[in-house]
Amino acid sequence: MDSQGQRVVMKLGINAFNIRVGGGLYHLVELLSSVNPLDYGFSTVVLWANQATLSKVPDKIWLQKVEVRALNKGWLSKLYWSFFIFPKEARHCDLLFVPGGSYLGRFKPFVNMFQNVLPFEPKERSRYLLKSPGLYVKYALLRMIQGLTCKRAQGAVFPSGYAKKLIYNSVKQMDTQRCTIISHGINPIFRDAFVRDHSSKLDGVIRLLYVSTIDLYKHQWHLIKAAQMLRQKGFRVVLDLVGSVGNASALSRLQSAMKQADPSQAFIYYRGSVDYLALPALYHQADIFVFASSCESISSIVLEAMASRLPIACSNRSVMPEVLRDAGVYFDPEDIGSIVEAISCLIEDGGLRQSCADKAAQYASGYSWELCANQTFSFLKQIATESKV
After folding, report:
1. Under 8 Å between Cβ of 62 and 31
2. Domain covering 10-185+368-388: architecture
3. Do domains 10-185+368-388 and 188-364 have the same CATH topology?
4. Residues in contact with 282: Cβ distance below 8 Å, sequence separation at least 6, in sequence order
5. Which residue, among 282, 288, 286, 285, has the nearest Cα to 350 in the 3D structure?
6. Measured by CB atoms within 10 angstroms of the end CB, which terminus of the chain is less buried, N or C?
7. How far apart are CA 37 and CA 98, in angstroms?
8. Exposed, middle or buried: residue 110 (CB in 10 Å: 0-12, 13-18, 19+)?
C-alpha cells in the first residue's frame, strides 16, 4: 500500500539469459512454481530466456514468457542483445531480477543472485588451467563480470552464508545492507518417502550412492579408489555414480579410475544422467550417501539426501558443514584414506548411521521451496519499494 492506502502494483522482470541446465534452472522452475507474486505487489512477471528454459517453466496467468533467439547463437549475438535490445524491452519493469549472477546492462534497479561460487575460488579455478584451459579463462572472466555485477546491484541474494562471505571477501565494495541469504528448498518427493531402520548391521552388500555432475571438483575418481580399498578391507560395497557429464577431462579420469579399480565391472557402476523423478528410488536403495565435491554454493543434492533420511559421508569443504552440520561424517575429498575412514565409520556403527539419518531429516525439514520463494519475493519487493523513494 502507498501513503494513500492504494495497492501498489509493480512489474518484475527476470533476465535468465544464462540459465540453461543444472541447479540454476532447477531453482528458477521451483521458484516460479511456488509463489504468487501478487502477494508481494507484482502483477506481472516477465521472463526472458531461451526456448529450452522457457519450456521447463510452468505457465502462469501472471507470467509472460519472452523467447530470446539470440541466446541460442554465438556470444556476439548474446552481447548485442544484452546491451542494446534488452534495456529497451525491460524499460517498463519496476525491478529486474538476475538469477544467473552476471549482468552488466544499463537497466536499474536490479537484484542479483549468486549461485556459482567456483569463479571466486582460486584453487577450484586452477583445476581447469591444464585440463580445460578454455574453462579456466571462462571462470576468470566470470569472476570479473560477477564482481562488477555485485558492485552495481541494488540488492544481492546468496544461497548460503558461505557464499556471501566468500564473495564479500572478494568484492570489497559490496553493500551488505542490501544483501540477504535465502537457501534453496527441497522437493517433497524426497521427504521421508522411505523410512528405514539404519541401525541394523550391514553384513551383506552395502550400496554407496553419489549423485553429482561429473566435473573436476567433484572427485568421483577418489571415491572409486576408496570403494576399491573398502572391498580390500572386506566390506562388500557397491558404488553407484549418477550424474551428467560436465567436463570431458573429468569423465576421462572417472573412466580410467573405473578400469583400474574394477576392470570386470563387478561393483562400480556409472549410471549417467537419471530422470529427476527416478532419484527418490535410488536414494531408497542406498545404504550410505557419499558427497565428495569441494566447491558448492549450496548443494540441493545433499539436501535431497538429508530429506531422504540417509546416513551421509560428506566432503568437509566449502558450504557442506553449514548445510549438513553434525548430521554426517566428514572427509577430505582429495584424501582417499580420509574417504575410506569416514565410510568405514558409518558401515561399522549402526547407531551412528541412525543418528546421522535422523538428524539429517530433522534439519532438512527447515527447507522448502515455498519458504525460498516467499523470502525471495519479499526481498524483491523491499528493493523495488526502496528504489522508488
Report:
1. no
2. 3-Layer(aba) Sandwich (3.40)
3. yes
4. 209, 211, 240, 242, 274
5. 288
6. C
7. 16
8. buried
Q: Could you give the CA distance from residue 63 to residue 139 in angstroms, rounded to a whole number?
A: 32
Nine cell digits for residue 372: 525460498
Cell triple for 221: 575418481
In the chain, what are the domain boundaries? 10-185+368-388, 188-364
Rounded CA gap, 47 and 59, in Å? 11
Q: How confident is the model at residue 317 (pLDDT cuts 50, 70, 90)?
A: very high
Place of cell 576421462: 252
pLDDT tens digits, 319-377? 999 999 999 999 999 999 999 999 999 999 999 999 999 999 999 999 999 999 999 99
Can you read off the three cell numbers belonging to residue 318?
566449502
> Topology of 188-364 in CATH?
Rossmann fold (3.40.50)
The rounded distance, in Å, linking the Cα atoms of 228 and 235 is 10
Average pLDDT over residues 220-230: 98
Query: What is the C-alpha R_g of the chain?
Result: 22
Which helix (DSSP H) or strand (DSSP E) does residue 74 occupy? none
Cell 525491460 sits on residue: 90
- In order of 139, 255, 262, 296, 339, the CA distances from 259 in angstroms are 31, 6, 6, 28, 20
Grid cell 549402526 in the structure block, residue:
350
Per-residue pLDDT tens digits for 293-312: 999 999 899 999 999 999 99
Q: What angle do CA 369, 148, 85 make, to 5 degrees?
A: 80
